[in-house]
Amino acid sequence: MLPLLIGVIILAIVVYVAFRMLNSIVLGTGLILVVFVASYFILGYLPRIQDVPVIGQYLGKYMPEFPSTTGEAIAIIRNVFYSMQVLDVSRDANGDLLVTVANTGKMQLSGLEALVDGQKQRLLNNPKDPLKSGEVTVLQLDWSGTYSVIEIKAEQASVTYP
After folding, report:
1. How far apart, in Å, are the Cα atoms of 123 and each of 72, 97, 129, 144, 148?
2. What CATH number was assigned to the domain covering residues 82-161?
3. What is the pLDDT at residue 89?
4. Residue ranges covered by each domain of the chain
5. Please, is 45 exposed, middle or buried when counting C-beta atoms within 10 Å of its C-beta (0-12, 13-18, 19+)?
6. pTM as predicted
7. CA quadruple 75, 81, 87, 92: dihedral sign
8. Strand order in the sheet with 97-103
9. Helices (H), 44-155
10. How far apart (Å, rounded) are the C-alpha atoms in residues 90 and 141?
11. Among candidates 128, 97, 96, 95, which has minimal Cα distance to 112?
12. Cα separation of 134 and 102, whole Å?
């Protein structure tokens, strides 16, 4: 009976110390995050973790790079919601360009138009509009010559090929 009582007391002490350590770790992490958020609102950018004295050289190896300005953060978020990709460029039987475009974002895209070498091109077909998330459409362009750059624009996003 005595060994069981001593074992329970030791277990209680270990659990108490573990909770105190966990509380200190959570509190310290929270305070560090508060300092980073405050510096973001005061200075307008987040400091690089590698620049933090003493611990930065150790944490910087394992932490991802965060956007340093508000514009970068907004661009990253916008690219998640509104993005598209040119999957293929080929020619039809008449020699006109066929551009296959996919909506890789989470929101729908509308108002698709195409520019070849900086010149707006007439669409010979009626592509899907709006193009929902995950959908693919083909744009048939009135262009039979060679090209160097194709730009597909929507009201919300654009993509350049190649």
Report:
1. 33, 10, 13, 13, 19
2. 2.60.40
3. 92
4. 2-77, 82-161
5. middle
6. 0.58
7. negative
8. 84-91, 97-103, 136-141
9. 56-59, 70-81
10. 11
11. 128
12. 7
HEC secondary structure over 13-59:
HHHHHHHHHHHHHHHHHHHHHHHHHHHHHHHCCCCCHHHCCCCHHHH
pLDDT of amino acid 66: 66
Q: How far apart are CA 134 and CA 131, in angstroms?
A: 8
Type of residue at 148: S
Residue type, 23: N
CA distance 110 to 126: 12
Tokens of 60: 């910087």
pLDDT at residue 135, as a whole number: 93
b/e per residue 142-160 (b: at least 16 CB within 10 A): ebeeeeeebbbbbebbebe
Which residues of the chain fall short of a pLDDT of 50? none
Give the list of residues 6+ apart from residue 95 with CB closer than 8 angstroms, or none: 144
Question: With the CA atoms of 82, 88, 89 and 94 taken in that order, what torsion angle do they form, in degrees rounded to the nearest 10?
Answer: -120
- The CA dihedral of 5, 11, 17, 20, to the nearest 10 degrees, is -110
